[in-house]
């Protein structure tokens, strides 16, 4: 599917991070702009970071105009990606429900629905009767402490196989002439006269390149500090778990921001469940009993029939959170050749195709595409935040 390569002394572009973002950047550089002298480096195996730890929910029903345009384009790219890569990504657009349990949460759903509809995204507010028809197993009675009052139904939303996306992009990079180098850690980025000149690896190689892309997750601040750039990012763990297989009963993604939980059933019958980011900053990717208890307790409020189901495994990932819950994309003022594709919080996998396509466009044309301009690093200094906390509060 992809080959081992000997590192060359020079590339046009070096991408740090072989997850969905780094691989998609390399893929679109080659496919759309014929820039094939590209190396994607990662300190572990292919997709071994958050691309292999996320729960791969895809949606576009965000809160801001900038966010809706951005994630909507990514959703459209995902819809055609299996055909484009000639690789089955198992994308199932089963529908996505964001539940509201309080009056203020219902008001938030109304706002999102109106923004979505105005921008051409298929979302609408629905009420308990319709929610019950879509998800019969969901408890919509007044028994729970926080009964379900309404939901934002986003029919195009769904789930995808994260490993298939990574492998498909990696094969696409190879077929277009790019190179993927797993287990090759970048330890230094060289800069001269405010221009990036290359990188040095843990194996002692010195690689020259006029453009270096930081497409890492979890360690984006560490990589950026190699060139003296401080990012307004705090890293938090995020945990999820999966149950034993069950007979199919749930064909929607169900998310509750009020209860901080989400649930969906895979095509193998397992239930994938997760929560909000842990409330402390850490680089730990382990799991905790406290979080598992919280996930299970809130899942049972929604689906009391699951009380005897067994959890098979639990895991954690790392989320780079920005102050406005939006990513950081583009060049850094005063430093030529250093490009950022970072700060993805809990929503990075949704944006893999669009961020890769637009960052590749920036590198090839030397111009920042309008779609990603609002997410530039300088927005924090300019007080032009793109606040998506209302649409990303429970991460999914």
Set down the secondary structure blueprint.
Elements: E1 13-16, H1 20-33, E2 38-41, E3 57-58, H2 65-85, E4 96-100, H3 103-118, E5 124-126, H4 128-134, E6 150-154, E7 158-159, H5 162-175, E8 179-181, E9 186-192, E10 195-201, E11 206-208, E12 211-214, H6 220-225, E13 234-243, E14 253-256, E15 261-265, E16 271-275, H7 289-302, E17 311-321, E18 328-332, E19 335-342, H8 352-365, H9 379-382, H10 389-392
Parallel strand pairs: 1-2, 1-12, 2-8, 4-14, 12-19
Antiparallel strand pairs: 3-7, 4-6, 5-6, 9-10, 10-11, 13-16, 13-17, 14-15, 15-16, 18-19
Task: Describe this structure as you would to a colleague.
The protein has 396 residues and is α/β, with parallel strands linked by helices. 29% of the residues lie in helices and 24% in strands. The chain has helices at 20-33, 65-85, 103-118, 128-134, 162-175, 220-225, 289-302, 352-365, 379-382, 389-392, and strands at 13-16, 38-41, 57-58, 96-100, 124-126, 150-154, 158-159, 179-181, 186-192, 195-201, 206-208, 211-214, 234-243, 253-256, 261-265, 271-275, 311-321, 328-332, 335-342. The strands form 4 sheets. It has an 8-stranded mixed sheet. Strands 8-2-1-12-19-18 form a 6-stranded mixed sheet. Strands 9-10-11 form a 3-stranded antiparallel sheet, with no helix packed on it. Strand 18 (328-332) and strand 19 form a beta hairpin. Helix 1 (20-33) runs parallel beside helix 5 (162-175), helix 1 crosses helix 8 (352-365) and helix 2 (65-85) packs across helix 8. The chain starts with 12 loop residues before the first strand and ends with a helix.
């Amino acid at each position: 599917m992809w080959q081992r390569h000997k590192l060359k002394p020079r590339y046009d572009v070096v991408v740090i991070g072989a997850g969905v973002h780094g691989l998609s950047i390399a893929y679109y550089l080659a496919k759309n702009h014929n820039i094939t002298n590209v190396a994607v480096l990662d300190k572990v195996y292919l997709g071994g970071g958050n691309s292999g730890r996320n729960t791969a929910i895809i949606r576009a029903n965000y809160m801001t105009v900038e966010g809706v345009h951005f994630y909507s384009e990514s959703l459209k790219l995902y819809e055609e990606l299996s055909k484009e890569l000639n690789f089955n990504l198992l994308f199932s657009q089963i529908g996505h429900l964001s539940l509201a349990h309080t009056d203020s949460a219902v008001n938030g759903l109304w706002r999102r629905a109106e923004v979505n509809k105005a921008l051409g995204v298929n979302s609408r507010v629905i009420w308990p009767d319709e929610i019950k028809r879509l998800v019969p197993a969901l408890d919509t009675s007044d028994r729970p402490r926080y009964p379900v009052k309404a939901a934002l139904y986003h029919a195009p939303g769904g789930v995808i196989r994260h490993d298939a996306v990574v492998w498909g992009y990696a094969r696409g990079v190879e077929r277009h002439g790019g190179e993927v180098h797993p287990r090759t850690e970048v330890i230094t980025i060289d800069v001269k006269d405010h221009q990036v000149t290359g990188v040095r690896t843990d194996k002692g190689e010195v690689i020259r390149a006029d453009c270096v892309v930081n497409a890492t997750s979890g360690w984006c601040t560490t990589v950026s500090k190699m060139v003296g750039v401080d990012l307004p990012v705090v890293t938090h763990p995020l945990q999820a778990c999966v149950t034993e297989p069950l007979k199919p009963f749930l064909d929607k993604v169900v998310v509750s921001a009020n209860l901080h939980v989400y649930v969906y059933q895979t095509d193998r019958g397992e239930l994938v469940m997760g929560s909000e980011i842990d409330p402390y900053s850490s680089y730990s990717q382990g799991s905790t009993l406290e979080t598992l208890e919280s996930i299970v307790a809130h899942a049972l409020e929604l689906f009391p029939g699951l009380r005897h189901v067994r959890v098979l495994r639990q895991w954690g990932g790392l989320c780079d959170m920005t102050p406005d819950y939006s990513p950081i994309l583009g060049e850094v003022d005063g430093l030529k050749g250093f490009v950022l594709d970072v700060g993805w919080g809990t929503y990075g996998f949704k944006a893999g195709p669009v961020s890769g396509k637009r960052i590749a466009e920036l590198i090839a044309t030397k111009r920042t595409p309008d779609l990603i301009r609002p997410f530039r690093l300088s927005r924090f200094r300019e007080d032009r935040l793109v606040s998506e906390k209302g649409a990303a509060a429970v991460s999914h």
